[in-house]
Write a structure and sequence with these properties.
Length: about 150
């Protein structure tokens, strides 16, 4: 299944974040929002995410936004970057490699100071499921994203 062709169909996202027992962040909660897709050329897709996040410990919504860049290296490998510092200064997170027809995983972990980021991705009929894992001295997080068509 062509992951790149599925990415350009995404319209919405929802996610659940869970802090592990040793985590010091307290990031457990859930979020929802819209995804604006911009296809730059035949091998790059920009995700502009806008939505709301609510911590389990709060009744208040927090506005959130993220911008990601998906770049098709070849049919079995896609690079994921974060536009945290703008498109001229992308933060490369990792490459995802195809394991089988519907399952992808990060080829390497992304190092951010003391933390390691990795992900698994499943391509399903009506959505893409991206599960992030963040581990470090103060973190033990899992974030399960659903990107909906």
């Amino acid at each position: 299944m062509d992951l790149f062709e599925k990415l350009i169909k995404v319209n919405f996202f929802e996610f659940v974040s869970r802090s592990g027992k040793n985590s010091k962040t307290g990031w457990s909660g859930h979020g929802t929002g819209n995804v604006e897709i911009i296809k730059d050329n035949n091998n790059t897709v920009y995700f502009k995410e806008h939505g709301n996040f609510k911590l389990e410990s709060s009744s208040q919504d927090i506005k959130i936004s993220n911008e990601y860049v998906w770049h098709s290296i070849n049919p079995q490998e896609i690079s994921l970057s974060h536009a945290r510092f703008g498109y001229a200064n992308l933060v490369k997170l990792f490459d995802l490699i195809e394991v089988d027809n519907t399952y992808w995983r990060s080829k390497q972990e992304h190092v951010c100071v003391d933390d390691l980021y990795s992900a698994d991705l499943r391509v399903l009929d009506n959505h893409i499921k991206l599960v992030w894992r963040i581990v470090g001295p103060k973190k033990g997080e899992t974030i399960e994203y659903l990107y909906l068509f």
